[in-house]
């Protein structure tokens, strides 16, 4: 293997001696890891695994050596594209398997290249950029095909049938290459999805006024594609803005930059379009447009393509990992054969066709993400016709329109009403709050990056300032709504503790910034980057998410879904990671766990000071926002009445918690908590008595809420997985009860692990005692079909071996889930499984409440209860005169359909719209009803809350209060060392 790898470096990639030596050394040091993990990479064939590992090593060396040797020879530079071509791998497969290499070889990379190797590798950013380019190329192709015939003069001579599959015309290619020039020269750092889409629309405008009329698919005078018309002709920019949800100002600026590139790169002479007489400009309002006389002429088009290609080569010079020119040709084998759906790449191989590589930005498909309703504002595609399903690009543009129209017009200073809240504290906190906002948002949206390879541009700095101001305005808007709600007489009218709480404000700023970043789909600042830059942890952020959504009524569905997905990520694993502030609260709520928390080193570091953040992220004092000059005695400004919603959002209910944000599971405290402040309890000192009373600390109250959310998430996932495995209700209840007991009595099993790891092991343990013919391989196979599946969950489980462990192994390592099950899980939960098998689980419902500190139970853990009644997306009535209801189709039903996975499926329930009418006519009548009248009346509000798999109703009847006893005998619970389906 070493000899083949050395030949790959020297003969096929032509690397110089120093790079080859470094690559061979890394391959040699990780070869034992390759041999030990043959079954978890790729298809499992030795030849393919070796090619994967070679690609991983070469990419790591290429990325991690950059900057180490400042003067590298030109032949020393190579890209990921070159690596993948010589190893015969696709980009899709590379991104799918690379996380395994990082997990297994991380300690080697850390020793050779330093502790920050993962950040320098930038794999997640590169993957997000790849997904964006896939979406953008499809978006551009669809728009181009709508406006133009896919052929040019030379193509007519060369091919017959211009619409042949896979064919791209010279005009189409010209537009994509000009777009890439924009990305390279104008969007050097912030290549977010919204900015790039604006660039593509500006390119489309240039094509419309330059491509000869004979190649148009539309009539300029009658087409609805360009709907903005006046007596001066068609307004191209206004029409495109209407069609693609872009801003005319941004589109004009981007178009000017594209025109400048045509002048600089193609050496074309610009003319005011109003002075030019040409057929392509007839019936067009030419005011403000620029025209290039021979830009699309047959004789110059080929030379223009060559010049754009050369400019791209010279500009990037192998500095980019992916040659972005390949995206204009979908048939390129380098891209892979996967299809795209909802921001994810569905692998098409027989073994992995149901797995996904998901963009790390907020296009993640959640098991609780609602399907788009037919009348949703986000359900308008690039064509502007609601009958088409939304694309990731069109959804991003719709969300950006909300930010532009609702948030951007707001004042950048606190309103008069908010200022009075600030001044009503023990001391005026206005200056303190505005200074903090300046520093935190300056760290999240820096004007320049120290050591940035590509440098910065004026547009970069302008982009950062615009996003910074949007986040600031959103922060003030939601903060004012929270202050108004918290100042109600029932909450005591005292906001001093809340408004002076450093962690609360940082969480609010992080949430605001994250929504702005998620709106623009920013590649360079993906979650959880905002956590590191604000100095907070995932557990901190989880305290404000639902409250943030409640107090911002206008938040688009896509952003609500994004926050819902974030909360799920925080609960499933991030809040349990090392350094989470959750452990600082848990150690107070449950002192018996202090020894284990300290042994593993899980406690969070103190929150960094604002000065430290400003210094670490190069936030200059001169760059801070000017402090507002607010006179609090004046009357509220004219915006104060509309800067925040006057009532709480009643539509949003998070699946992970009941409607009252801080409802305690202890019944005798429910009524008192309802009248108390949620935020003030959440952000008070952990040792402080809970304002809601009950004799508990704020740490215990916080853990009450946290564990109730964990159990609700576990219930959703247990039910979805059991549904795929066709398990009985009794088994579902047993698995859920076991997870509940583990969280209560064996909390340490969750430490630094993923909740799905506990669920999978619990499911297998219950299957064993229930004498089910169910293997771990079958469980893993079904789990892989879940939308939230991550292969790392069953491939890499954290273990900190106890000193007294029988195996004699020491230290910390990551093992497969079977090893974790046998060595750690079963020894810990065997008594619980035995009790469950013997029928003692019914009496344990009461026993759990009494075994608090002595048995290691967290006082904040809810008492044992049967499988909960989960909130469902109820079917919506869609006809006033008929009993017709529509709901998202269950995933188990959708799996068996052969239609493309990118479509949304709905189940229609009820009577026919007319007697003796066919189903197709019924569906047409339903669609007509939904598409008629005001949208707000016809909208099917499936927002958020649960997945399509929960539509048919709760698994557990309301009156089911116990788990049936079992007469099964005790079984050997150990698992044979079978490998899960990798």
UniProtKB/TrEMBL annotation:
Compartments reported by the entry: Nucleus
Entry keyword annotation includes Transmembrane: no
Ranges where the Retinoblastoma-associated protein A-box domain occurs: 391-586
Chief location category: nucleus
Pfam families found in the cross-reference section: DUF3452 (PF11934), RB_A (PF01858), RB_B (PF01857)
Family: Belongs to the retinoblastoma protein (RB) family.
Role noted for this protein: Regulator of biological processes that recruits a histone deacetylase to control gene transcription. May play a role in the entry into mitosis, negatively regulating the cell proliferation. Formation of stable complexes with geminiviridae replication-associated proteins may create a cellular environment which favors viral DNA replication.
Name of the protein this chain belongs to: Retinoblastoma-related protein
Organism of origin: Acorus calamus (Sweet flag)
Gene this protein is translated from: Rb1
């Amino acid at each position: 293997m070493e000899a083949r790898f050395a030949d790959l470096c020297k003969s096929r990639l032509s690397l110089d001696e120093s790079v080859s030596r470094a690559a061979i050394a890394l391959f040699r040091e990780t070869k034992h890891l390759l041999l030990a993990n043959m079954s978890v990479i790729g298809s499992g064939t030795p030849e393919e695994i070796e090619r994967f590992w070679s690609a991983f090593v070469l990419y790591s060396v290429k990325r991690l050596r950059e900057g180490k040797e400042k003067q590298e020879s030109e032949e020393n530079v190579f890209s990921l594209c070159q690596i993948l071509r010589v190893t015969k791998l696709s980009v899709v497969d590379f991104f799918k398997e690379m996380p395994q290499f990082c997990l297994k070889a991380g300690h080697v990379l850390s020793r050779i290249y330093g502790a920050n190797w993962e950040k320098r590798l930038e794999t997640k950013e590169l993957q997000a950029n790849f997904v964006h380019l896939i979406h953008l190329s499809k978006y551009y192709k669809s728009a181009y095909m709508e406006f133009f015939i896919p052929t040019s003069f030379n193509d007519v001579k060369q091919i017959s049938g211009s619409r042949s599959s896979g064919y791209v015309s010279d005009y189409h290619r010209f537009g994509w290459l000009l777009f890439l020039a924009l990305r390279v020269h104008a969007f050097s750092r912030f290549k977010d999805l919204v900015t790039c889409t604006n660039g593509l629309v500006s390119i489309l405008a240039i094509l419309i006024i330059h491509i000869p009329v004979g190649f148009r698919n539309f009539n300029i005078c009658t087409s609805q594609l360009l709907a903005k018309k006046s007596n001066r002709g068609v307004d191209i920019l206004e029409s495109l803005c209407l069609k693609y949800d872009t801003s005319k100002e941004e589109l004009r600026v981007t178009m000017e930059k594209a025109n400048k590139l045509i002048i600089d790169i193609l050496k074309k002479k610009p003319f005011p379009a109003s002075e030019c007489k040409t057929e392509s400009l007839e019936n067009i309002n030419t005011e403000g447009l620029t025209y290039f006389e021979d830009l699309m002429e047959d004789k110059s088009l080929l030379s223009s393509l060559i010049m754009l290609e050369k400019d791209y080569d010279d500009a990037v010079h192998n500095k980019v990992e992916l040659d972005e020119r390949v995206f204009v040709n979908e048939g390129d084998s380098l891209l892979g054969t996967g299809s795209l759906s909802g921001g994810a790449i569905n692998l098409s191989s027989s073994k992995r066709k149901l797995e996904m590589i998901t963009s790390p930005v907020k296009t993640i498909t959640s098991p609780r993400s609602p399907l788009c309703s037919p009348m949703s504002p986000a359900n308008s595609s690039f064509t502007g016709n609601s009958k088409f399903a939304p694309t990731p690009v069109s959804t991003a543009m719709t969300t950006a329109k909300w930010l532009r129209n609702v948030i951007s017009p707001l004042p950048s200073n606190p309103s008069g009403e908010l200022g009075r809240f600030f001044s009503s504290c023990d001391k005026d906190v206005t200056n303190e709050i505005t200074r903090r906002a300046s520093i935190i948002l300056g760290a999240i949206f820096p004007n320049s990056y120290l050591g940035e390879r590509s440098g910065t541009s004026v547009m970069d700095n302008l982009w950062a300032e615009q996003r910074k101001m949007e986040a600031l305005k959103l922060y003030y808007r939601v903060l004012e709504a929270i202050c108004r709600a918290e100042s109600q007489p029932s909450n005591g009218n005292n906001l001093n503790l809340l408004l002076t709480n450093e962690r609360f404000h940082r969480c609010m700023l992080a949430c605001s910034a994250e929504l702005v970043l998620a709106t623009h789909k920013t590649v360079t600042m993906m979650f959880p980057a905002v956590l590191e830059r604000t100095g907070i942890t995932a557990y901190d952020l989880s305290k404000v998410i639902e409250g943030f959504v409640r107090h911002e009524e206008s938040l688009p569905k896509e952003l609500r879904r994004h926050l819902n997905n974030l909360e799920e990520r925080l609960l499933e694993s991030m809040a349990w990671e090392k350094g989470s502030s959750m452990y600082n609260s848990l150690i107070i709520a449950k002192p018996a766990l202090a020894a284990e928390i300290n042994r593993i080193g899980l406690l969070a570091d103190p929150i960094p000071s604002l000065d430290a953040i400003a210094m670490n992220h190069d936030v200059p004092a001169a760059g801070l926002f000017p402090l507002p000059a607010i006179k609090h005695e004046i009357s509220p400004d004219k915006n104060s009445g509309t800067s925040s919603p006057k009532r709480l959002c009643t539509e949003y209910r998070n699946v992970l918690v009941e409607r009252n944000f801080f409802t305690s599971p202890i019944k005798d405290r429910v009524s008192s908590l309802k009248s108390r402040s949620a935020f003030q309890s959440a952000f008070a000192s952990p040792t402080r008595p809970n304002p809601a009373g009950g004799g508990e600390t704020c740490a215990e109250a916080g853990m009450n809420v946290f564990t109730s959310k964990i159990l609700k998430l576990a219930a959703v996932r247990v039910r979805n997985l059991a549904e795929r495995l066709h398990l009985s209700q009794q088994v579902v209840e047993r698995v859920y009860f076991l997870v509940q007991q583990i969280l209560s009595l064996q909390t340490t099993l969750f430490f630094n692990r993923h909740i799905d790891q506990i669920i999978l092991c619990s499911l297998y343990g219950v299957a064993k005692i229930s004498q089910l013919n169910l293997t771990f391989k079958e469980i893993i196979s079904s789990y892989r079909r879940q939308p939230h599946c991550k292969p790392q969950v069953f491939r890499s489980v954290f273990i900190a071996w106890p000193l007294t462990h029988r195996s004699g192994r020491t230290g910390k390592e990551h093992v497969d889930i079977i090893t974790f099950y046998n060595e750690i899980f079963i020894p810990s939960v065997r008594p619980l499984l035995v009790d469950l098998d013997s029928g003692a689980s019914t009496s344990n419902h009461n026993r759990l409440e009494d075994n608090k500190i002595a048995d290691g139970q967290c006082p904040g853990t809810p008492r044992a209860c049967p499988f909960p009644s989960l909130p469902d997306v109820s079917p919506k009535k869609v006809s006033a005169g008929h009993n017709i209801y529509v709901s998202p189709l269950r995933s188990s039903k959708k799996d068996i359909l052969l239609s493309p996975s990118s479509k949304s499926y709905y189940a229609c329930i009820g009577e026919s719209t007319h007697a003796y009418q066919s189903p197709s006519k019924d569906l047409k009548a339903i669609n007509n009803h939904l598409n008629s009248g005001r949208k707000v009346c016809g909208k099917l509000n499936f927002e958020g809350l649960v997945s399509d798999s929960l539509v048919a109703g709760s698994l557990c009847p309301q009156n089911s209060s116990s788990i049936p006893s079992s007469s099964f005998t005790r079984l050997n619970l150990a698992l044979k060392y079978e490998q899960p389906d990798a």
